[in-house]
Amino acid sequence: MEKLNELERQKGETLKFYAPASLLHRLQEAMNKTDEESEIVHRQLLDREIDLATFVQKYKKLRNTYHRRGLTHLAAKTSLNGQV
Known about the structure:
elongated
């Protein structure tokens, strides 16, 4: 019986982890982290810690990732709610 309870607990945790709301929350957190990283790169440019070519390469990659995640988040949210 103890093994069954443990398996039920694990099942509940797994379902909770993959629940749509949980996935949306983690995607939003990833977007926020990417946004913060792009701001750090921007500050590095302003503080002359990196050159313009390095800035453009890093910033473009980060913003591309941010917007791709944003579109995925919007599509998932729309799909779940039937509206924005």
